[in-house]
Amino acid sequence: MAVRAADGRDPVRIGYRRDDLFNDLLTTRATARATFAGAQLYDGELQLNRLGGSQNAFVNAYVKYERSPQMEYYGLGAD
């Protein structure tokens, strides 16, 4: 079983978001989800706002780790 957003099968879910760090220059978000079947999903995001003094310039970084032990794997495909 894979953990997917809004699929209703992740009974344990926690998240954190903060938009106002360093005078609104940094936005951060992190979530963790898990199922009783052992599937896990962790993700996080950082956003640097107002780069170079511009209101429209930003850099966004996103990381994700997913472990789905019951998901079928069919190999890399044909050679």
Q: What structural class results from the helix and strand content?
A: mainly beta
Write down the Rg.
17 Å
Determine the N-to-C terminus distance. 28 Å
**In terms of per-residue confidence, which ranges show pLDDT below 50 for 5 or more consecutive residues?**
none
SS strand fraction? over 45%
Helix content: under 10%
Task: Tell me about this structure.
The protein is mainly beta. It has strands spanning 12-21, 26-34, 40-49, 58-67. Strands 1-2-3-4 form a 4-stranded antiparallel sheet, with no helix packed on it. The mean pLDDT is 83.
Throw out a few tags for this protein.
mainly beta, 79 residues, 0% helix
How would the blueprint of this fold be written?
Elements lengths: L11 E10 L4 E9 L5 E10 L8 E10 L12
Quick structural summary:
This protein has strands spanning 12-21, 26-34, 40-49, 58-67. The protein has 79 residues and is mainly β.
